[in-house]
Amino acid sequence: MNRELWEGNQAIAEAAVRGGLEAYFGYPITPQTELLEYLSKRMPELGRAFVQAESELAAINMVYGAATAGARTMTSSSSPGVSLMQEGLSYIAGSEVPCVIVDMMRGGPGLGNISPGQADYNQLVRGGGHGDYHSLVLAPSTIQEAVTLTYNAFDLAEKYRGIVVIAADGNIGQMMEPVVMPPMRQIGHADRGWELSGAAGRPRRIISSIGLDPEVMERINARLQARYREIEANEVRFAERQTEDADLLVVAFGSAARIAQTAIREARARGIRVGLFRPITLWPFPYQRLAELAQRIPRLLVVEMNAGQMLNDVRLAVGPQAVVSFYGRTGGQVPMPEEILAQIGGMAPTPSTNGARAIALL
Amino acid sequence: MNRELWEGNQAIAEAAVRGGLEAYFGYPITPQTELLEYLSKRMPELGRAFVQAESELAAINMVYGAATAGARTMTSSSSPGVSLMQEGLSYIAGSEVPCVIVDMMRGGPGLGNISPGQADYNQLVRGGGHGDYHSLVLAPSTIQEAVTLTYNAFDLAEKYRGIVVIAADGNIGQMMEPVVMPPMRQIGHADRGWELSGAAGRPRRIISSIGLDPEVMERINARLQARYREIEANEVRFAERQTEDADLLVVAFGSAARIAQTAIREARARGIRVGLFRPITLWPFPYQRLAELAQRIPRLLVVEMNAGQMLNDVRLAVGPQAVVSFYGRTGGQVPMPEEILAQIGGMAPTPSTNGARAIALL
Amino acid sequence: MHEEIIIAGFGGQGVLFAGQLLAYAGMNEGRHVTWIPSYGPEMRGGTANCTTIISDEEIGAPVVRRPSTAIVLNPPSMDKYAPLVKPHGLLIVDSSLIAQQSGRTDIREIAIPAKDIAAEAGLAKAANVVAIGALIAATGIVQFETVVELLTLKFGQRSQEILAANKRALRLGADYVLKLPA
Amino acid sequence: MHEEIIIAGFGGQGVLFAGQLLAYAGMNEGRHVTWIPSYGPEMRGGTANCTTIISDEEIGAPVVRRPSTAIVLNPPSMDKYAPLVKPHGLLIVDSSLIAQQSGRTDIREIAIPAKDIAAEAGLAKAANVVAIGALIAATGIVQFETVVELLTLKFGQRSQEILAANKRALRLGADYVLKLPA
Amino acid sequence: MLAETMTVVYERPETLLPVVSHYCPGCSHGIIHRLVAEVIDELGVREQTIGVASVGCSVFSYNYLDYDFAQAPHGRAPAMATGIKRYRPNHVVFTYQGDGDLASIGAAEIIHAAARGENITVIFVNNAVFGMTGGQMAPTTLPHMKTTSSPQGRDVATMGFPIRVSEMLATLDGPAYIVRRAVSDPATINRTKKAIRTAFQAQLHGLGFSMVEILAACPINWDMQPEDALQHIKNAMIPYYPLGDYKVIDAVKALA
Amino acid sequence: MLAETMTVVYERPETLLPVVSHYCPGCSHGIIHRLVAEVIDELGVREQTIGVASVGCSVFSYNYLDYDFAQAPHGRAPAMATGIKRYRPNHVVFTYQGDGDLASIGAAEIIHAAARGENITVIFVNNAVFGMTGGQMAPTTLPHMKTTSSPQGRDVATMGFPIRVSEMLATLDGPAYIVRRAVSDPATINRTKKAIRTAFQAQLHGLGFSMVEILAACPINWDMQPEDALQHIKNAMIPYYPLGDYKVIDAVKALA
Amino acid sequence: MRGTIRIDANRCKGCELCVGICPKKVIGIADTFTPKGYRPAILVDPDGQCTGCLLCSTICPDVAITVYREAVSRTPAQKHAAAA
Amino acid sequence: MRGTIRIDANRCKGCELCVGICPKKVIGIADTFTPKGYRPAILVDPDGQCTGCLLCSTICPDVAITVYREAVSRTPAQKHAAAA
Ligand SMILES: Cc1ncc(C[n+]2csc(CCOP(=O)(O)OP(=O)(O)O)c2C)c(N)n1
Ligand SMILES: Cc1ncc(C[n+]2csc(CCOP(=O)(O)OP(=O)(O)O)c2C)c(N)n1
Ligand code: SF4
Ligand code: SF4
Ligand code: SF4
Ligand code: SF4
Ligand code: SF4
Ligand code: SF4
Ligand SMILES: [Mg+2]
Ligand SMILES: [Mg+2]
Q1: What's the pLDDT band for C11 if we cut at 50, 70, 90?
Q2: Cβ D43–F57 below 8 Å, yes or no?
Q3: Would the CB of F131 count as within 6 Å of ligand 4?
Q4: Which listed CATH number (3.40.50.970, 3.30.70.360, 3.10.580.10, 3.30.460.20) goes with F23-253?
Q5: Does C60 touch chain E (CB under 8 A)?
Q6: What ipTM does this complex have?
């Protein structure tokens, strides 16, 4: 086991390279820039494609292009840059080509700041772009996990011919942790039956998201939806900690979850039995497992670095019989373990309705 | 009462003009183009600003600029164009300036087609852009209603210093109906205390969405969230039809709702007691009223021109004790009254869970 | 009363205008009306059609799958819409351009050489107006005079000649139907 | 063992490197470690700080509000972090640049003229390494030798001179603390 | 009439699919499609060609040109082509873009593809109008021209001046070949074909970015008979957009 | 040392706020801010000026320049300025943009503002690098220059060639005034100030789009001492980006 | 030189560009309609005046015209060159 | 001409551009630190060599330098012109 200390951004970049990344296109933005910088050196070294695009718009469309040509391709950005990619993402989804997007979320809205945030949840999970589509959204909470998820993201993207998002934040992107890097994969692959490689010895192929006839477009949508149901059936991922005996369940993802873990340890030290439920796939959301848990543990504290975005999904999962509290920090503020601990301590079993949210905003 | 036959796009444009529109910026896209074309003649006639921007990105940022300068300003587009506006919208929200956006939704994802759709629901309601923000989203189902909502949209935008979206589709945009136009408003207004008008006799003003210090950014977010709570308290709008005696509730918005209305009439003619609940504000969503209704009428059929986007909000409102069915057409397909009628007829009281959706996709 | 009329033909045959004419007439007679176009994938030269609904009640769906009346001005539209007309409905066919017949026995079918009649009226382009004349004569859906007023409003200022030709076209269309054996 | 160390100073004083050095050392000794930087609004010349956590357990939050140890290399950092050190914690202050004292009695405070010592070691920039030497001597959080190895890895190939100066700095920092009255 | 002794001297090129196009009567897109197909056929590179269609009337160019094809978001074809070409450097990659697409919303992408010297070929159809959406003003619309979004004619004081894309891109160091041609009569059409061939040859030789701007007619939105529209290209467009070679690097000249 | 008989011959301009900037030592942004403030002061238009800050190191220019200010999304300052100017045509509206902002992500917006002849003034600070994000390659980065995203130096074969923005925009009919200046020594600084003044005067006279491109130093990301950085402007940048007047319409010439 | 043309009426859209360009004025417009509703161009060349000059096929936007000439033996390459 | 300058040590960032540019070489760098941590420039002009030539204030990126000259009566406009 060869543990090395890696910065998150660089670790994700290297994991992508080892996972078979053949073409990267990106544009600098904090706190993701180190990822691009790393690849600006690494990709040419390996003879693979790297372009610093003129913008995120161009980057996502270069990705779109490379994806149609059959490449394992990726871009990375942070919140405002991801907003600029929404049209391109909708096209990519509509034309069913695979790609990987890394979003190192930061504080918003607007220009906001470069501190860690999780307020792209809705944008990534509910579809920031137009039309009915989903991306498979993976939220790592350690660098090791980010590495593993990124390494395998290309397979997922290809399996479902769609978008896989690694949703992390500046905490994950800029911190360093020990990592065991997976081995380098061979690149190059057989023709997959849809990629544009020149119509040699076969009828030409067209990759397009147009269905001018609504009947045709509806068929495309039906195919997409069927695939999404498949993903929902196969790919739901989550992690649980100390839920067996818990009286209270903290629900959090990504770096908020690891911070919550510290609070939970402290709470347990004080005799409060708290467990952690951490969705790893934000879409598909682990509704079912969370619903099961909520049957047994009907008091939940949702902790997010936003004003309550995953909260909706938690509510959808657990229904109104559970007491759901929310603790959110916004605009790049990171919730501290002590704050979460205070919330855990102070959680009274008062019911909360679906209509009105209990948002603690400092 | 002076009824005139108006095309939806032109009617909305004229309503905006009469409501005080001072500066319009847009880019052609079907099925919205007639709105821009109408204003290309009308605005200069009145000595008001009109610019055909080089793109939707430029258009939304021209709107952003005009808004900072204190103008009543608007842009209009359709789904892919709205995707391109997400960064700008997040900035506008973050810097708390008012504006109005018209989205004539079409079939997607990707380039899709120019037929009517409702698949921008999530993009508009859950935030297509990064960060925690909301737009006030109004969904008219007749041209008269579109006129009235547009006419008053500027007041709402200014009252809450934020974005108001008129969410319609090609049905509304391209059909003609009799309309009574509201009177022309005076334009010009007193200094509102925040607009950029030159620092004459006062300290200079800055309009920015930056809060590099997360504490500052969190305060901005807290202010935004407080305002959103205010909007939720004041501005929820919906329409009900024949809900008093209904056994079954159809929930639909915009043009899907008016189509459903035909089906309901037919169903009633056959002795099935069906009512209609039509959210007019998609955000804030009328959770409370729908929850009340669902207590009495626990069988609901959600009809949308998408794969089930408002459906989530309906589920959040009614909880798992209600039976919620869904009928959606996607990709620019318009559900026909007969189809909805068939759904109404065939609605068996089997429970549907939150995790799995019952989506009828043709 | 609740009538749903689909008018269909090539782009350039004035089907959209014909539908609007009906909608205006209905509105001016105090009814609820809607009009909605639908374009094919082609910019120009493709098929175009529109739906006009005139009703005593508030109108829900502005689109219909099966109209109570269809006016078809070219062969592809005939193929598409003839089978869709509701039983007991009406199908008006420009027989100058469409040779075939629907073969349906559960509807009323009026074959009228609209294009030829329009030429006779002095404006070959006014086949659409001929068809509206026929529709009015066959159904009384709106008053003849209401439509004449609208034509006057529309063309009166531009050209008396065109106006006169349109009025003639309307009249001849109506007459053709009135003279048909009942 | 669970230590949270914040190192803070001006950009360019090598605070980030010092934090990484600790993290590497912790990792090489088989511990869980995290390192995370935080930048001020300024590109350069502003303040910079980082947090290194070394623990026997899996690490949750990589950020802390109240560290168990703070190493401060400039006056603004002293102002900011001295009050935040946990009771019974440790505060290491570069007294070459910081005149004041924290005034706290519930923590251990080590004032060390790190910059001057670094100059003495032959590398004025190595005040950060002096501070790490002091930290090791005061806490034993990592082995002195582990850090020497890391310095060798880092500078060994580039310049024997710089490596030697850094080793001296580390040693002198440790010695200074060891010689303090306990 | 067709005597036994006659042979075909012109027929539809092989890679132009035998389908009826959706274009309006007299639309120049048809001519330009044909020229592209003829060049690809003559160069014998059909099997290594990948086209990128843009958003505009030519969005369906992939229905007519028999190559592998991708369809790009409005304005982004050069970015997509970049992605394709970087992954498949030995393929022949071209974009087919209108003036709204290339010069309005896609201005940044074309400039940067050109500046990078991206080894792709751009077929740029400048018909001075947004054709597909019904004839709105484009960045290329001539001063005073009436369009559906400049109903009083393009007033340069408020709506700005037309952009001469070839001249603009020729200021960059990246491009290898930038010329402006027209399809207003058989002579200009034949010259356009030559330019398209040179552009593709430049790409095949790895010489970098090549673009042929083609002044084209949109009779429908210009509200002109097809023949008058071709006249309009000559009388109104060419004076504002002079035909010519704006950038031809020596290596491209050497190809001839 | 300050004798009674002495008078101030230079002091901080009034509308440059008396705060310490966040810029690095030797950063040219400071000089350029000062020049803008001096010109606005001298023209006496502070109370009708609205600035638009962009995204880059100068994102906080509004903290230093004492005018009403908006802050634009990355690259979109010219669009925002258009919105402001169209609504307030009698105000003096300017953008302050870096080369990453203006020439990379914002290429379309600057071209179209220029093509429209938008009556705004653009202060374009070209330091050949993305300063704020830590020194990545910009479209303006010189060939072979090492940056954090071109670690082996800018290889024009794969990363393209620098864009000469002034030359490119000068091909358009819209602009009234486009010049390139530098701030490499007191003489060039003084000439830059004159150009900034002319640009604002052009706007005040309603003559249309004006832009001053200013070659500037980013000592930190160039990894140079401030003095060497100024030398680098002279020795490396000016040869690639010649100083000069790229477009000066007659009406602007007449202002002088 | 003697030539002739064949116009594919399914493709022709009746734009009349060939009609105008033909130096021999041997192209006219038919009275019939194409399936798309256009009146197609037709060759009206009773006297065999067509020279196979390629002008009509060059201008035709719908590539509806095939051009023939009195046989002169030529290689396919030459055939292409002639079209260029 | 005789002049002098005043350097605002709070603003100076020690970039040394003024040091290099001064034709009289009367600007040096102090041993002290500014609140921001820089070593500021200082005037070291015991012999009063400064001419008030404005070069230092023109090059200073942080506008930290005020320049004075032996009084010659001038209008504010002239004062501005001198700075330009
Ligand atoms: C993002 C986006 N904005 C706008 C449109 C609508 N749109 C489609 S084609 C077009 C203009 C095309 O004009 P041009 O490129 O000149 O092509 P032409 O039709 O003239 O050949 C526009 C604005 C779109 N599809 N997507
Ligand atoms: C949409 C978006 N993309 C990327 C960024 C990150 N970003 C901030 S500044 C900058 C580059 C600025 O460079 P330049 O304009 O040259 O200004 P300088 O800092 O050099 O003065 C970038 C890419 C952003 N804020 N928003
Ligand atoms: S609208 Fe214009 S460009 Fe489009 S197909 Fe018709 S003629 Fe051609
Ligand atoms: S990074 Fe460069 S441009 Fe930014 S403040 Fe520092 S020197 Fe100036
Ligand atoms: S080939 Fe020449 S002569 Fe023959 S029909 Fe065509 S244009 Fe006329
Ligand atoms: S040019 Fe072609 S399409 Fe036009 S009329 Fe002649 S044959 Fe028909
Ligand atoms: S004014 Fe001139 S002489 Fe005096 S210090 Fe400044 S540069 Fe030197
Ligand atoms: S130029 Fe200005 S900032 Fe630089 S050292 Fe001199 S006074 Fe200080
Ligand atoms: Mg065009
Ligand atoms: Mg820069």
Answers
A1: confident
A2: yes
A3: yes
A4: 3.40.50.970
A5: no
A6: 0.96
